[in-house]
Amino acid sequence: MRKLLRLARWTLTGGALLVGGAGLATLTTVNPALLPLPAQLSGSGPTLTETGPLRAGFSRVKLTPTLGATRTVPERGEFISLPLAGFGNRKGKPAEGVHDDVWVKALAFAVGGKTGVVVCADALIVPREVTELARQKLTAETGLQREHVYFAATHTHCSLGGWGEGPVGEAFAGPFQPAVRIWFAQQLATAAALALQDLTPASLGSDSFSAPHLLRNRLVGDRGQIDPEFALLVVKQADGDTAVLGSYSAHATILGGGTMQFSAEYPGAWARAVEQATGGLALFAAGGVGSHSPKPPQGGFAGVSQMGAALATETLGRLATMTLTNQVRFGVLGANLDLPELQARVTDGVRLRPWLAAKLLPVGTRTLLQGFRFNDAVWLSTPCDFSGELALELKAEARARGQRLQVTSFNGDYVGYVIPAKYYHLGGYEPQTMSFFGPQLPDLFMATLRQLAAELGP
User: Fold this and answer.
1) What is the pLDDT of the chain when averaged over all its residues?
2) For a tag site, which of 25, 196, 332, 430 has the least CB within 10 Å?
3) Are 153 and 128 in contact (CB under 8 A)?
4) Alpha carbons 269 and 312: distance in angstroms, whole number
């Protein structure tokens, strides 16, 4: 998304001039002293986690649209062709074909009275409006509440667009098509519901491996850190069917804005290789991708294939030695946050007034952080490009208390980049254009994620 820098700056400054006139009416100074707000946890209490026999279910539904054919969505019209989300230099042009299919895949868990489902989409993000529609459908059909649905995206920049409304949303995702939101939500809800219907006795294991040679810190290079861990969660049903959930912190941006075909990028190449070897399902969730770019052997689709294959080879080696158990301690916990005041900047020290920023940016006033526990593994979800450097801090703390921790991005909302506050005054895309809520948001998120991990227990 780096190529959106100039467009985003123009949108913010130009929008300010058009809507408010300019000067004091639309601009003010950055306020670094805004205090973090406390989290409101949902799901805590004496039965936060339960231990017992695991039941698990899997599913997948296709997200790839049928290009050149009309798809009708009930009550909201139809679409014929779609842009790809992720790069502004595409200028909203429709996709020209399908290199490989994109999917929504789901993995459901039930232990005693605790139920939760992980839903991973081969998409740039899972937008807030799409999430709300999917939640409504799921709650009506299954009774699941929001904190029990762990959304994630692979962050491919070659998937479904058309879901973003307004200047910034359309800069990322192309011209808004209302029917896309309904259809996207239907695919998410359908995948989750099918996984819940598939619940059957199963065993679970977790592991990870290090792959530092396939990513780099794109923000500060060697002056910063990388999170090289590829986290794995494996579930095997009693009949032998297997699902592998993987997460890694490299942006899925091997393919650039010149690619006009649908593709699940390197996460999709990894999933296909794992599925071919296991005969099961492979799901991918983007990790702490903030500031982390891929470092493939080469560019283009050849690089996508090679990087996916390299990660799949390591994954399959771990699967061969992993110990699985049917006795699982499972827990679900959500943290509802009131977001601080918007600090959308046009220069380092000058920002749009919050009322104007709220009209231009596709963000809400509240968001959700989540935690799922699987024995000694805790997975935490965030509504942003979460920094891999911040994830490293949380993982080190978790290891000290006996936890194996993974942080994922794009959990059904999007509030920009959340990177270490020490980088806030650097110029450029991540620190200035995309840090929507100022230098205090990382502290708020870190404190809340620590609380979630601690509440879910060692």
Assistant:
1) 89
2) 25
3) no
4) 8
Position 73, amino acid = V
Instruction: Report pTM.
Output: 0.92
Task: Report the alpha-carbon distance of residue 418 to residue 233 in Å, rounded.
Answer: 25
Helix (H, G, I), strand (E, B) or coil at 234: strand
Q: Which of 119-133, 229-243, 436-450 has the lowest mean pLDDT?
A: 436-450
- Token pair in block for residue 37: 């707000």
Residue 33 confidence (pLDDT) = 61
Distances (CA, A) of 270 to 69, 219, 266, 308: 29, 25, 6, 4
Work out the angle between the directed axes of helices 300-321 and 265-278 (0-180°, nearest 10).
Answer: 40
> Please, are residues 120 and 285 in contact by the beta-carbon 8 Å criterion?
yes
- Comparing C-alpha atoms, which of 338, 344, 337 is closest to residue 435? 344
Look up residue 281 and give its two tokens.
Answer: 């399902």
3-state class (DSSP) for residue 130:
helix
Cross-strand partners of 305:
none
Q: Which bin fits 162, alpha (ψ -120 to 50), beta or left (φ > 0)?
A: left
Query: What amino acid occupies position 62?
Result: K
Q: Does an H or E element contain 418, and which?
A: strand 417-418
Residues 6+ away with beta carbon under 8 Å from 91 = none
DSSP string for residues in 257-284: TT--EE--HHHHHHHHHHHHHHSSEEEE
**Percent residues over pLDDT 90 in the chain:** 73
Residue 274: CB atoms within 10 A of its CB come to: 26
Measured CA to CA, the distance from residue 122 to residue 304 in angstroms comes to 14
- Least confident span in 29-43, 78-92, 239-253: 29-43
